[in-house]
Amino acid sequence: MFSTLIQVIAGGLLLGAVYALFSSGLTLIWGMMNVINFAHGDFVMLGMYVAFVVWTVMGGGPAAAVPIAALALASLGIGCYFVLIRHIMRGPMLAQILGTFGLALLLRYSAFWYFGTSFRTLPETLVGGTLLIGPIRIESSRLLAGVVALVITACLHLILTRTALGSRMLAVAEDATAAELMGIRPDRMQAIAWGLAAGATGVAGALIANFFYVAPSVGETLAIVAFVTVSLGGFGSVPGALAAGLLIGIIESVSAYAIGAIYKDIVVYALFVLVLWLRPAGLMGNA
Amino acid sequence: MMKRAAWPIFGIILLGYPLIFSTPFQKRLGALVLLYAIGASAWNIVGGYAGLISVGHAVFFGCGAYGALASYKYLSLPPIGGLPIGVVVSIGIAAIVGIPTLRLSGHYFSMATIAVAELARLIVSNIDWLGGAQGLSGPPVPRTLLDLSFISALPYYYLFLGVLAAVLAFTRQMERGRLGYYLRAIHDSERAARSLGAPVSRCKLYAYLMSAALTAIAGALYAVMFGFVDPESGLGILISVKMLIMTALGGAGLLLGPLVGAAILVPLEELSNSFLGGVGAGVTFVVYGAIIVVIARLQPGGLVRPVLGALIERSDKVVRRPC
Q: Are A267 and B119 in contact (CB under 8 A)?
């Protein structure tokens, strides 16, 4: 009983690390330019399909799929920034919501059209085996996903806080005009932010695809998970997203274990609504 | 605003549509345009006039649809008899959800409404007496005329036209009244409106309740016409998104914006569904998505606004009103 609970929590933590990874992309975009990307979950969905295509076309595992998905999604993110986001971010809020929502529909139903609605899965043998640590069994695909996600989230945090690029991005987030006067191009920094954020979703998607079904509709649930994570961790904070992601992973796994798998989404969504109602600035953010 | 003479012409066009376009497909199309226009006009009160972008109006639509069919199932009422029940439940939910949610601004409000709607969909999918994932059905054979179960779409067309006219008249009354001015002030700047003494929280709540009640009417009418509702067709996120998109395409915060948007998007959806068959659903929403992106990028005010602007410029060149 006790060991089962530990196993459930360990599984939740590993899944939570992946949630943290793609949510830090959302939080980065929000912190940089006050835009909520409603298509964020669908970016993760595309990352999953990239992993699926990499496997069907060349039989590659995560070693090939993760970098390819990261590059593909980062290019998509930068493209979206220049074609759409740059023009709507200063416009009325309706335009912002419409723009990213339209993007979400476009991506979701393009996947629906091209790949069909059926649930696809990657073969379990791609990242095979389970690890036994004492009484706890952990599938290696989940372990790989959790560890890689943690490392990349940490890298993202280090880029933002310890490098010149990160300082420039923060300067643009603080005051784009002042940054421009200091010789920083806001456009370029914001495009990089979109590239990083979308790249993170690509990595996350390619990692989840190893143990999760792939379908066009998964983006919707994942988007809400990202919203919950970001609102719980405070908008604009990568460490906050990490803590919140891990917490949500645990809450989800424990509630699936304790009251049944169909109720786990209900618990997460209800948590989200409660957080927004009670503490809109997040648990760690400052209002 | 539109010239006085234009209204009767507009009315005659709407009344005469099914006489000119009289194939069953065209009549059904007309009825659907009006049905969606009712829903989008209801959304417009909150999303357009008050500028609170709700992406969760499916909750209220679902209240109406489930109210109609549940009162048939349990009380043996004709589905339309369940409309008041749906409206009352909808107002109740709007009050409970609205008070904490309306304090949120901007994107936070939109995200909260999405989450509430998805929560409602998940919960209803697990409630057996609301049909769970299978949903509820209306009377298989009409018992009396009151069941409003017709083979032709013509009666629905005129029913929906009447309701739409009432909804638009109601909206116009609100638009010209004190509440309408308050809502537009809140839309422009909530802080400024509050500092000038507008009862901001109360106005937003009133608009939200009105919008919820009218959306529930649209949901009940949907259930009457289709005789079926399940969590996806009654509470799915696409219901909310369609109301939002139709209004934004026509022009949010304009009386006729939602009708114009519905008149463009509903035929598009129906035509691509009927030409492309099963695959059509996917392609339809790809096109939907593309249209929304283009609108957001190029004409975020909607299609009606530039036309209106041109009309006003022509009609009074001396006094140019800001539009």
A: no
| Interface residue A108 vs chain B (CB under 8 A) | yes
Residue type, B26: Q
Nearest chain A Cα distance for residue B224, angstroms: 29
**Residue A264 forms contact with B (CB below 8 Å):** no
Cα–Cα distance for residue pair B136/B79, rounded to 1 Å: 11
b vs e for A140-152, b when ≥16 Cβ sit within 10 Å of the residue's Cβ?
Answer: ebbbbbbebbbeb
Instruction: Report how far residue A105's alpha carbon sits from residue A122's, in angstroms, rounded to the nearest whole number.
Output: 25
- Say if the Cβ atoms of A98 and B300 lie within 8 Å: yes
CB distance B115–A269 less than 8 Å? yes
Handedness of CA A270, A271, A277, A280 (dihedral sign): negative
CA distance B209 to B205: 6
SS3 category, A242: helix
pTM: 0.88
What size, in residues, is chain B?
323
Chain A residue numbers touching B289 (CB-CB < 8 A)? 102-109
**Cβ pair A105:B241 closer than 8 A:** yes
Residues β-bridged to residue A133 = A136
Q: CA neighbours within 13 Å on the CB side: how many for A22?
A: 38
d(CA A249, CA B95): 32
Question: What would the pLDDT profile of A27-78 be if each residue is shown by its tens digit?
Answer: 999 888 888 888 999 999 999 999 999 999 988 888 899 999 999 999 999 9
Minimal-distance CA residue of chain A relative to B110: A97
Please name the amino acid found at residue B270: E
Tokens of B2: 């539109």
A215: left (phi over 0), alpha (psi -120 to 50) or beta: beta
Residues 6+ away with beta carbon under 8 Å from B12: none
- Residue A265 tokens, joined: 């989404």
Q: Which residues of chain B have pLDDT under 50?
A: 316-323
Distance CA B90, CA B65 (A): 11
Cβ neighbourhood burial of B278 (10 Å; 0-12, 13-18, 19+): exposed
- In this prediction, does ipTM exceed 0.85? no
Tell me the sheet residues that pair with B137. B228
Pick the residue from chain A with its C-alpha nearest to B241.
A101
Do residues B52 and B109 lie in contact, with contact meaning Cβ atoms separated by under 8 Å? yes
pLDDT digits (tens, 9 = 90+) for A220-243: 889 888 988 888 887 788 999 999
Hey, what amino acid is at A213? Y
Q: Which residue of chain B is at minimal alpha-carbon distance from A84?
A: B297
Q: What is the pLDDT of residues B27-51, one digit of tens each?
A: 999 999 999 999 999 999 999 999 8
Residue A113: its chain B contacts at CB < 8 A?
279, 282-283, 286
In Å, how far are B39, B46, B101, B102 from B59, measured between CA atoms?
12, 14, 14, 16
Three-class DSSP category at A208: helix
Residues 6+ apart with CB under 8 A from A222: A22, A40, A41, A44, A45
Nearest CA in chain B to A266: B119
Q: Residue A56, class by beta-carbon neighbours within 10 Å (0-12 exposed, 13-18 middle, 19+ buried)?
A: exposed
